Amino acid sequence: MSPDLANIAFDPIDATTLWATVGNQPVRSADFGETWLDWGVPPATPLAGFLADPATPTTSAWALGGTGSGAGAWRTTDAGLHWTRVLDAPDPRAIAPSPTDPQRVLVGASGGAALTTDGGSTWQWVRTDVAVNRIRWRGDGLRVSGLRPDRRLMRSSDGGVTWVDGTSSITGDWPEWPWVDFAYLETGPNELLAAAGETCRQPSSAYGASSLLKRSTDDGDSWSAQPITDCLPLFQPTSVSRPGVEVRAERAWAWNPYLASNPSALQASTDDGSTWHALLGSVHETPTSWFDVGVGGSLWCLQPDGDTGASTDGGGSWIVGTAGRRGLALAASDRQAGHAVRMTKQEVTDVNYLTLERTTNSGASWSQYTYWPISVSETFIAYRWGSGQTIYVWVWTWGEAHSDLLRSTDGGTTFHLHAESVPTPVDVEIAGSDFHLWAVHAAAPRSRTSTDGGLTWLATDRGLPARRPVRLLVDPRDKFAHALVVFETGEPYETWNRGARWQSMSASGVSPSKNPDPRPLPESADLRGVRITGGDWDLGIPDRRIFLATDRGLWVSDLGFVTDGLPFLDLDGVAYSRVLQRVFVWNERHGVYARDWPALPSSDPARESATSTRPGDALSLRVTPNPFHTDTELRCLLPEAGRARIEIFDTSGRRVATLLDGPVAAGERSLRWSGRNDRGQRVAAGVYFARLNAAGFTRSERVIRVD
To answer: What is the 3-state secondary structure (H, E, C) of 641-689?
Structure first.
């Protein structure tokens, strides 16, 4: 399940600001749940409640929590730097200040309810015969209700001094539901909305939750069922906060969550609870242990429980494949759309059973190949840059220097034991042909290559420092001679000759004369003392941009650290999609976030203008937006007048549509493609190619249409 999101509340001054807690961490959102930032951590752990002060929410707050003699209510007036315990209360459960008098505050606990009228200096226990789980005020500051353990409300009309118990339980025939919350509505003097949740175990996959939403028009004496969206039952609800507020959010150049299931457990209503929609909140996401970018910008996400999500539309929608076992590794093909392999593990009577599974339909179904070695702890899959039919799987026990190597030559339909006691890698790539492998290792030699499918290995680590690598990146454009090693600490190292010689990224570029000289990257002094967990790159000409996932946020080679808008800094990985022009970062607890990031130019305009002598050198074709939904624009630059033809082809080479075929003038020209073939029919979502023929030359661009 996702981390616990609780104590959701609107800021008392700014209606677009939300407060909540995740575990023992208070968090604040200034854009209605789109992004969240940590606030000062109170000493009341475990944290049972948190609330911003209605008068001064940016600096003052209340917190509930603690255990034993240290339990009670705490208060800060300096934005969480210092906290003072103002009430001793065993097992505190709820806190609520009056909306008209911030000095009047009620605290609910297992022993009853306590009231202060002077901001916490003195307290009076106004109810001692029943536990109070939730407290909600009406807008007049006089009427207030509390929730009893039996799901009935207790009501007060004099600011919490005296109380009367209600007669009807919110959950009715389901009294054992472990979570219930309620809120007053603005549509009537006695209207309330209540939600209940129950965690349950689904036999097919992982943990889910049942949900119940009810409404009362008589101040809680009777309740009727309230419709909810289909996605709400997938998660256990954690709070009901004042409905009826319009939701607005700007997400341009912001970090947005990308999840393998329901977008968020945070639901919003703009019509007082009649209809609901999910907010892309950045607190309650799907935990992620592995993330990969496949062919055509497809996205793949592996959760710790083994469930897999696949998206072919840039993260807009996901196909979820369930496993119900611990997820170890995931690898997507960069040759065949919808193809991926995942490894999961399940322990049965002290034996680790590994299940290797393959999908050819974006995770809608998986076929299994089971392999159960003794004491296996982890695994690694190599499934990139080959023919798409050969897959290598390393299986090893932590602490062992060697592994068993499995191999498939039919795209994962069958596997066999290819080699025993091969060096255990940290990362591996298929370096061109199906028999060429490139691996990096924790111990010397830290770089090895193989030309026989992993049976024998050659050390290729001259110049590499004695540091632990975490990521190997190979450049397919230069026959895989160009590669980059990312280390756990310090700057990456680069080679242009298949590992015969390595040098640091900040050194001057040295490459074969047939390639443009790469420009040296800025000095990487700001990486000192930083723990690096992963990396990826964007390869342009002549530049390359390096993305590093660190414990201090995202590091980008031409910008340094980029942390604005990130709800967490301790990153577990990063991936860049040149097709989507988007960078993805993830954390096992919080999930995956993405941010638009334009790709580097694939040519050097200055070099081209200085050396171009042929009309074809100036011929160009660009497609934007890409991917697209309804239509996209194709811009072409024609160096001279003449006949030109622009056509759309599918991945099998079949012509789908002809957009231009005839004489044109020199210069720039723009056309639009509506995603339809020559018969006017909408083409299926997928990868296509736009091809421009002019002046005896050809230019092609990959085009992706999404549903």
So the answer is: CEEEEEEEEECCCCEEEEEEEEEECCEEEEEEECCECCCCCECCCEEEE
* Tokens describing residue 664: 């044109």
Contact status, residue 430 vs residue 449, Cβ threshold 8 Å: no
Buried/exposed 336-373: b ≥16 CB within 10 Å, e otherwise: bbbbbbbbbbeeeeeebebbbbbbbebbeebeebebeb
Strands (E) in 515-674, as ranges, are 532-539, 544-550, 553-556, 560-562, 573-577, 582-587, 591-596, 620-624, 632-638, 642-650, 655-664, 667-673
For residue 332, the one-letter residue type is: A
pLDDT digits (tens, 9 = 90+) for 655-696: 888 898 888 887 788 888 999 888 888 888 887 888 887 766
CA dist., res. 489 & res. 532, Å (int)? 6
- Separation of alpha carbons 294 and 270, rounded Å: 38
pLDDT at 30 > cutoff 50: yes
Residues 331-341: pLDDT tens digits? 888 778 888 89
Tell me if 12 sits within 8 A of 60, measured CB to CB.
Answer: no
Cα–Cα–Cα angle for 516, 522, 524, nearest 5°? 130
Name which of 116, 184, 175 is nearest 155 in CA terms: 184
Query: Dihedral of CA 668/674/680/685: which sign?
Result: positive
Question: In whole angstroms, what is the distance from residue 422 CA to residue 440 CA?
Answer: 13
Kindly report whether the global pTM for this prediction surpasses the value 0.70: no
Evaluate whether 418 touches 432 at the Cβ level (below 8 Å).
Answer: no
> How confident is the model over 36-83, as pLDDT tens digits?
677 777 887 788 888 888 788 878 888 888 888 889 999 988 877 888
d(CA 422, CA 406): 11
Residue 16's Cβ-count burial label (10 Å; 0-12, 13-18, 19+) is middle
Kindly write down the DSSP assignment for every residue of 93-150, as one continuous string. EEEEE-SS-TT-EEEEETTEEEEESSTTSS-EEEE-SS---EEEE-TTSS-EEEE-TT
Chain centre distance of CA 12: 30
Sign of the CA dihedral running 456, 462, 466, 471: negative
Percentage of the chain lying above the pLDDT 70 cut? 73
Q: Is the dihedral of CA 358, 363, 367, 372 positive or negative?
A: positive
Instruction: Give the three-state DSSP class for 607.
Output: helix
CB contact at 8 A, 36 and 27: yes
pLDDT tens digit sequence for 440-482: 998 889 999 999 999 999 999 999 999 999 999 998 877 688 8
Residues 6+ apart with CB under 8 A from 542: 509, 516, 517, 518, 519, 604, 607
d(CA 292, CA 342): 11
DSSP reduced 3-state for 224: strand
Query: What is the C-alpha separation between 391 and 406, in angstroms, rounded?
Result: 8
Tens-digit pLDDT profile for residues 544-602: 889 999 998 899 988 888 876 676 788 999 999 887 788 888 888 777 777 778 888 76
568 in Cβ contact with 587 (< 8 Å): yes
- Structural element, H or E, at residue 346: strand 340-348
The larger pLDDT score, comparing residue 522 to residue 501, is at: 501
Distances (CA, A) of 427 to 314, 392, 599: 26, 12, 25
| Spatial CB neighbours of 302, under 8 Å, sequence gap ≥ 6 | 288, 289, 290, 291, 308, 327, 329, 330, 342
